[in-house]
Amino acid sequence: MRHFLNTADWSRAELQALIDDARAMKGAPFGDALKDKTIALLFFNNSLRTRTSFDVGIRQLGGHAVVLSPTGGMWPLEFREGSVMDGEAEEHVKEAAKVLSRYCDMIGVRAFPKFQNWEEDRKDAMLTAFARHADVPVINMETITHPCQELAHVMALQEQFELEGRAGLGGKKFVLTWTYHPKPLNTAVANSALMIAAKFGMKPTLLCPTKDYILDERYMDQARKDARANGFDVEVTHDIEEAYKGAEVVYCKSWGALPYFGNWEPEKKIRDGFKHFIVDEAKMSLTDSALVSHCLPMRRNVKMTDAVFDSPACIAYEEAENRLHVQKAIMKAVAR
Ligand code: CP
């Protein structure tokens, strides 16, 4: 039995095989790979794309989805080992995982950090508890990484660069830029974007306002390791012009600074000073005809201007569509 929790656990060749299968299914969406299979999709947080694309993808492959949410009827869950359950949680993840394994063939989990204490949140406790206790494969639908989004992004880049006659990701400068958002957001997509860029041979640059916005060492180290294996390093810069110059991919995302988890007032004052990190035409003109994307949902004219988002350079809709295809490939790969 194999879970899909993090792309770090899968080789580049294995991930490329998933993307290749996804591309094949993009042309021929229907099949019976999940015939008579039931997949539980647990959403501890909101979703538009993930919920819809998993549900649709499961149906296209002949399976059935059961969507569960603590705000939609499911019991609130405890995930800590040995905890005295005298708070809100009515059920432990041990029982939930075991019972769902008796009914279902696979379990998808979306569980964002609680934004109170990064040392706790970085344990990814809900996902790892499900993976430990379930008797069926578990898929990460976004916790503190977002591996499905990573694959959808790489697939969109490969497709678009091929169309433009610029095939091959190797050696292309990939800029992950922090952008402003009025609230502190999850670092999951940023962690994932940096790791997948490095794994697929791109030259990753992390552009962020201050050193407080550098990502967790676990993901920085994974990206460095993969980048070095491909002959590069991960550049970290706070200089917008330097970052954008020569970029062939710009990926934008907002996230909260890890040292301020649970103490967001002072972080807001810093964040408010960096609204100029918005992705706009002037910045994009510094690039080497870069493709640009965002995982969505995205606040227009806060993170990216309309002019950039609605331009041919933006592949966000392709990436969003590709969620459907890569997730089908992932479910096929881990189904037993
Ligand atoms: N990108 C993404 O995961 O979208 P949702 O949060 O809408 O699922």
Strand percentage, roughly? 5-15%
Radius of gyration, CA atoms, in whole angstroms: 20 Å
User: How many strands in all?
Assistant: 11
In the CATH hierarchy, what is the architecture of the largest domain at level 2? 3-Layer(aba) Sandwich
Morphology call: globular
- Give the CATH topology of the largest domain: Rossmann fold
Number of helices: 13
CATH superfamily of the largest domain: Aspartate/ornithine carbamoyltransferase
The level of helicity is 40-55%
Low confidence ranges: none
Largest sheet: 5 strands, parallel
Bound molecules: phosphoric acid mono(formamide)ester
Specify the CATH class of the largest domain.
Alpha Beta
Assembly state = single chain
Strand order of the largest sheet: 9-8-7-10-11
N-to-C SSE string, H for helix and E for strand: HEHEEEHEHHEHEHEHEHEHHEHH
Structural class: alpha/beta
Instruction: Count the domains.
Output: 2
In round numbers, the mean pLDDT is: 96
Task: Describe the model.
The protein is of the alpha/beta class and 336 residues long. It has two domains: 150 residues, Aspartate/ornithine carbamoyltransferase (Rossmann fold, 3-Layer(aba) Sandwich); 172 residues, Aspartate/ornithine carbamoyltransferase (Rossmann fold, 3-Layer(aba) Sandwich), CATH 3.40.50. 40% of the residues lie in helices and 13% in strands. The protein contains 13 helices and eleven strands. A five-stranded parallel sheet has the order 9-8-7-10-11. A four-stranded parallel sheet has the order 2-1-5-6, sandwiched between helices. The protein has a two-stranded parallel sheet with strand order 3-4. The longest helix is centred in the C-terminal third of the chain and has 19 residues. The structure holds phosphoric acid mono(formamide)ester. Phosphoric acid mono(formamide)ester (CP) binds next to helix 2. The site of phosphoric acid mono(formamide)ester (CP) has 9 residues, from helix 2.
